C-alpha cells in the first residue's frame, strides 16, 4: 500500500527565518551608514529596520506557502512530489530507477535536526532525474534512505560493516595537493579585489612596497610566493577538515555502500553495489610523491549535474597511504587482492618517444617565441628565452619519462586494469563484464610509431576508459583477452598477431 502524503518539516520555516535575519543583518550595517550621510541617524535606522522586517516577513511568507504546497509520497512503485502555487509541478520517479539517496545538512540545519534529501536516478537528464526534499527531519531522512535503497540481501554478510574510518594522520596529505597553491593564489587575489572595492588598492600595494623597500626584487617575489603558499596550506588544511571530518565508509546489509563525512556541513552518500563497475585509484603528483592515493567509485547512477556541489559523489576514500587505498579498493570490490595492485604490461618505447616529443615541444615553444621576439626587438628577450628553456626542458623531460613509466595495462581476475597520467595518475580497475564496446583509434603519427589507443566503453563513470599508446598487436590482444569475442569479428589473421580490418 502507498503511504499517505507527507509534508516537509515545519522547522523549515524557522531555518528560513534565521537565514533571512542573517542576510538582513549583514546588509543593515552598510545600508545604515550610507543613509546616515544624507539624513538623521534615527531616520536611517527606521528605514533599514522597516526594510529588514519586510524582507524577513516576505521570505517567511514565501517559505510558509512552499511548505503548505509541497507534499511527497512513497508508493510501492513510485515516489511522487507535488509543489508550487501559481505553477504546480508534479514529479514522479520509479523506485526501481532510484540509485542514490543523499542527505546533507549545514550547521543551522544540523542544529534544528533537519536534512535535505536528494533522491537521484543517476541519469543525464538534468533536474528530471532527481527529487529534492528541502527540508525534512533527520529521522525522516534516514527512513527515506533505508526505504528507497532497501534491496534483498546480496553478497557475503560477513563483509558488512565499517570498511574505512578517518585516520587524523591523513591530514598531512592536504598541503601537498593541488588545492593548496590554488587557495594561496585565490587568497592573494581576494586581498587585491577587496582592497579595490574599497578604493584602497594603492595603499595595499604601497604598504607591501614599504615592507620590502630594502629587499631585492627576486627575494621580494620569493617572500610573497612563500606567504601565498603558507596561506594556501592553511586553507587546504581547513578545507580538508571541513570535508573529511567524521568520515566513515560502510557496507550496509542489502549491498549498499555509504560514505558519511563533513564537519560543518554533514554529507551522507549511498551507492548500490549492484551499480558498481569498478574502482579508480587517483594519485595527483604531490600526493603520489608521498605514496598516497584517493579511491573513487566507477559506477552507474553517479551522473554529475551541472551543479558542482554534487561533483564529489564518487569519492570513497580521501587521500590515504597507498596500502590503505589498495586495501579499501579490494574490500569495496569484495576481492581478496586489489586489482589496482596487479602487475601491468609496459608499453613500447614508441610511447616514450611520443611523450618526450610532446613535452619538448610544449617547453621549447614559448622559448622559441621569445627568442624570435628577442631577435626582432631586444636582446633581453634572448636571455629570458634561454633561462626559460633551461628551466622548462629538464622539467618537461622528467614529466614525460614519468608519464611513460606510468603507462600500463593488464587483466586481474574479473577486472581489466589501465594506468596512465603523470600530473594526475589514474589506475582504473573496470569489471570486464561491464565493458560494452571497444574503440580503437590511430592517428597518422601513431600509425607511423606502430601504437594505438584503446577505449573501453562502459555505462558507468566517465563512459570510457583508455589504454594509451599500446603496441598494435599488444593492445588488440589485450582487448580480446579482457572481453573475449567482443573484438573478434573485427580482427583478421587469427593465427598471426591480431590486426584490425
UniProtKB/TrEMBL annotation:
**Domain of life, per lineage:** Bacteria
InterPro entries xref list: UCP026631, YdbS-like_PH
Entry keyword annotation includes Transmembrane helix: yes
Q: Which residues cross the membrane?
A: 44-65, 178-198, 218-241, 359-377, 383-401
Q: Which UniProt keywords apply?
A: Membrane, Transmembrane, Transmembrane helix
What region holds the YdbS-like PH domain? Answer: 68-148, 405-474
Name the Pfam families on file: bPH_2 (PF03703)
Q: What is this protein called?
A: PH domain-containing protein
Record organism: Streptomyces roseoviridis
